[in-house]
TrEMBL record:
Pathway: Amino-acid biosynthesis; L-leucine biosynthesis; L-leucine from 3-methyl-2-oxobutanoate: step 3/4
Principal location class: cytoplasm
Protein name as annotated: 3-isopropylmalate dehydrogenase
GO biological process, one term: L-leucine biosynthetic process
Originating species: Bifidobacterium pseudolongum PV8-2
InterPro entries the record matches: ICDH/IPMDH, IsoPropMal-DH-like_dom, LeuB_actb
Length: 342
């Protein structure tokens, strides 16, 4: 297969500024190896404020029919928090059963880490993407009264945990063969215990892969004082969200952090997006770093099997950062500099 349809959802804020560069990088890196047809989706705050629509069924169905999704970011200060995040972004992750949220962190030569002695940093967070506290199980009763009750319940199923655990061990086999489960099993004794038992069980099938465990609070320490200890970090939806922003900061900023929301059995399209948000504090200034979005395009190419094209983007980014990473550049300058190296 060489013809692919890519859904493009720039979304909000800097998502709109960085996504065109990711798309151009994708197109240029693919070269003659594949023909991509792009379908643009007008989804996000503007559409919602204009006609009240967040993710109409019709759009979702069209997205389901594509081969992959390139997404920028979602969220706007004019819209109540959660409306777009849940109604658009999480709805896509859940509807497309993107159970692996893959988030690599690598410290590139030329990037200044906030750590005095970062050492070599090269790990991947395998974050569960369809369960946990993100399910939306819960609610509010007696809202607005003194007796209000608000709940969010963390859903963890043996099926959902096992499939992401297997993904993490398979990934570790291709890397340095070490998995660290991060949870909070000293407090969350039900879910934590189940995660640990499933890791132990699956781990027996991978005798070459070592695995250990960190409580999430301790993991935040090790991420800053000894990040090179990590190879594959395996964790749940919320812990993974928090740890990957910290991981981004440790490798020089979330502007370098790409991600894939992956349906590993290819039943539905997978989605590739920077881990960062719409950054209202810098939106409109043309200064957002497009590198994370461009690296997400590389992850998309790798997912579709175009390893060489993906490697071309990775190499271009690596060379760009090594030479110019310490300079102050606009979004367009970084975009052009990287494109010229692909
Ligand atoms: P954010 O990631 O948008 O920004 C956090 C900080 O990082 C800000 O100081 C921002 O300026 C900086 N930053 C982010 N991306 C950058 C880039 N490419 N280059 C340079 N600096 C960058 O997180 P936030 O401020 O907590 O959230 C803003 C909005 O984005 C909210 O509505 C939130 O819900 C949403 N959000 C969406 C996604 C997503 O779509 N995947 C992810 C995170 C947050
Ligand atoms: C991310 C974001 C999302 C998440 C939000 C916007 C729903 O923070 O992609 O990291 O929590 O997963
Ligand atoms: Mn996040």
């Amino acid at each position: 297969k060489t013809q692919y349809t890519i859904a493009v959802i720039p979304g909000d804020g800097i998502g709109k500024e960085v996504t065109p560069w990711a798309q151009q990088a994708l197109e240029k890196a693919a070269g003659d190896a594949a023909q991509f047809t792009y379908v643009d989706f007008d989804l996000g705050a503007e559409r919602y404020l204009r006609d009240g629509e967040i993710l109409p069924d019709e759009d979702l169905e069209r997205i389901k029919g594509t081969d992959a999704i390139l997404l920028g970011a979602v969220g706007d200060p004019r819209v109540k928090a959660g409306v777009l995040e849940r109604g658009l972004l999480l709805k896509l992750r859940f509807a497309l059963d993107q159970y692996v949220n893959l988030r690599p962190s690598k410290l590139y030569k030329g990037v200044t880490s906030p750590l005095a002695e970062p050492g070599e940093i090269d790990f991947v967070v395998v974050r569960e993407g369809t369960e946990g506290l993100y399910c939306g199980a819960g609610g509010a009763i007696r809202k607005g009264t003194e007796h209000e009750v608000a709940t969010e319940v963390s859903i963890n199923t043996a099926y959902g945990v096992e499939r992401v655990v297997r993904y993490a061990f398979d990934l570790a086999m291709k890397r340095r063969k070490h998995v660290t489960l991060v949870h909070k099993k000293n407090v969350l004794v039900n879910a934590g215990d189940m995660w640990q038992r499933i890791v132990d069980k699956v781990g027996e099938e991978y005798p070459e892969v070592t695995h250990d465990y960190n409580h999430v609070d301790a993991a935040t320490i090790y991420l800053v004082n000894d990040p090179s200890r990590f190879d594959v970090i395996l964790t749940d939806n919320l812990f993974g969200d928090i740890l990957t922003d910290e991981a981004g900061a440790v490798v020089g900023g979330v502007g370098y952090s790409a991600s894939g929301c992956i349906n590993a059995i290819n039943e539905y399209p997978s989605m590739f997006e920077p881990i960062h948000g719409s950054a209202p504090d810098i939106a409109g200034q043309g200064i957002a770093n497009p590198t994370a979005a461009i690296l997400s395009a590389a992850m998309l190419l790798r997912h579709l099997g175009f390893d060489d094209a993906a490697a071309r983007i990775d190499a271009a980014v690596e060379a760009d950062i090594e030479e110019l990473g310490s300079t102050t550049r606009s979004t367009a300058e970084v975009g052009r500099d990287i494109l010229s190296r692909i």
